[in-house]
Amino acid sequence: MKKLVDAFKEFMRNVPQPVFVAIAKDTDGEVGGLTVSSFTSISLEPLLVMVAIDRNARSFIHFKYAVGWTVSLLGENQSLISGTFANPKIPMEERLSRVKLADSPNLAVPYIRDAVAFMECEPYDSFEAGDHFIFLGKVIHAEILTDAKPLIYYRKHYTTIKD
Ligand SMILES: Cc1cc2nc3c(=O)[nH]c(=O)nc-3n(C[C@H](O)[C@H](O)[C@H](O)COP(=O)(O)O)c2cc1C
Q1: Whose CA is nearest to atom 23 of ligand 1?
Q2: The CATH number of the domain where 104 resides is what?
Q3: Do 77 and 149 meet the contact criterion of CB atoms below 8 Å apart?
Q4: What is the average pLDDT score of the chain?
Q5: Res 2: pLDDT
Q6: Is residue 32 situated within a structural domain?
Q7: Is the beta carbon of 58 within 6 A of some atom in ligand 1?
Q8: Residues 136-160: pLDDT tens digits?
Q9: pLDDT tens digits for range 94-126
Q10: Does the pLDDT value for residue 163 go beyond 90?
């Protein structure tokens, strides 16, 4: 089994993954966010996307009881932001205060103001998936913010794409 887990991890290390910060606001108005690469588009009719969130992540509870969430695509120069939002030692308030945030237009969920692009979603459905939960979001706003190249995580390093 260990061999298979290692092979699985090795496979995933070889998949280039765009890096996002996902931020949720819950029904109490509390906000939490983390670095994710599990974002993908799912459906055009209706417009659906998904993120997979670790049940042990501090933000999990905010996604579970979310009124809305945002996904910000980081740019090639934003690896520090990725590191901050993936560091369990940094308190959530400090994590959020280290970046420039703006509120999404419909639900006022924070997003990274100088990211490459962001989407705003309302909760659509969620499913248990092993040690993670899959959250489906209905897209209610999408916007390109800069023409920077995306931040990519590949073989445990940050990189970007060639033009
Ligand atoms: C490039 C990258 C991608 C990640 N993707 C995910 C992901 O899709 N889902 C997830 O739950 N955690 C993901 N993580 C890990 C979380 O960001 C990390 O565990 C974070 O500390 C969890 O938030 P917390 O510290 O508030 O608990 C990723 C980390 C990195 C560096």
Answers
A1: 57
A2: 2.30.110.10
A3: no
A4: 98
A5: 83
A6: yes
A7: yes
A8: 999 999 999 999 999 999 999 999 9
A9: 999 999 999 999 999 999 999 999 999 999 999
A10: no
Cβ atoms of 48 and 42 within 8 Å: the answer is yes
Measured in residues, the chain has a length of: 163
Domain span holding position 134: 17-159
What pTM, to 2 d.p., does this model score? 0.98
- How many secondary structure helices (H) and strands (E) does the chain include? 4, 12
Find out whether the beta carbon of 23 lies less than 6 Å from any atom of ligand 1. no
Longest dimension (CA), the chain: 47
Q: Is the pLDDT of residue 12 over 90?
A: yes
The reply to whether 59 falls in a domain is yes
Question: Is residue 11 assigned to a domain?
Answer: no
* Contact predicate 32/59, CB 8 Å: yes
For residue 45, with 0-12 CB atoms within 10 Å meaning exposed, 13-18 middle and 19 or more buried, which class applies? exposed
How many domains are there within the chain?
A: 1
Q: Is the peptide bond before 91 cis (omega within 30 degrees of 0)?
A: no
User: What pLDDT does 84 receive?
Assistant: 98
Which residue, judged by its Cα, is nearest atom 22 of ligand 1? 57
Kindly state whether residue 58 falls inside one of the protein's structural domains.
Answer: yes
22 lines ligand 1 (CB under 6 A): no
Give distance in angstroms: CA of 148 to centre of ligand 1. Answer: 23
